[in-house]
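Late entry, evening session. Most of the bench is empty. Finally got around to the prediction I had been postponing all week. Sequence below, unchanged from the version circulated by S.P.
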Amino acid sequence: MDYENLYIVKRTTVDPNSPAEPAFNTAIPAVFTNLVPAKVEARATLFNEGYERDDFTIYDVNTGQETWCHGDGVIVYAEALSGQVFKVEVETITNTSRLEPDDDARIRRPLHHVLQTIVHYNEDRSGSIRDSIIEGTYVSRDAAEAHAFRVLLDNRTNKDDFIQYNEYPQVSDRPFGADILVHAVKEGGENILVSVISSYVI
């Protein structure tokens, strides 16, 4: 049986108390071939990570029954007593790797995800306004990294179209973090980071 799409549970944490600028952390706790269990997992993600309801001053869950103000694809939005902000989303991408699920529609194997993050410095110099999208999911990290170097480039876009474009093939040379392979700056001030994040939980 072919599974056309992957439904990826993505958890993003923002710590506004970081000294330089807000610190962002993104994890992929689960991948499914069915949207329904993906949403169930998204609702349970923060509790699976050890948090309790009392840890949050705000804990909103998107049930689809009322107006939602926290963004498309966001299933859980929470704010902790410490000021940290949590978003748990479900993203849909094409299953180009033809991954096969277990009986519960979950992919239970190590995976490597290409993530594009746009930092809107043109809107907020603190770097707190940013969006991220998953550009692909792979079994091989080498394949994921190869795709990461192609994400921003196509027949209509080349490196010269950016004010700045840097690739970091060697881990030791990556100034923005060990997982960030590409940093680019667009005219107007948008910064783009392309990273590969791995999920090993089986």
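Two things to note before I forget:
The chain has two domains: 1-107, 109-202.
The chain has a mean pLDDT of 92.
Will write this up properly tomorrow.
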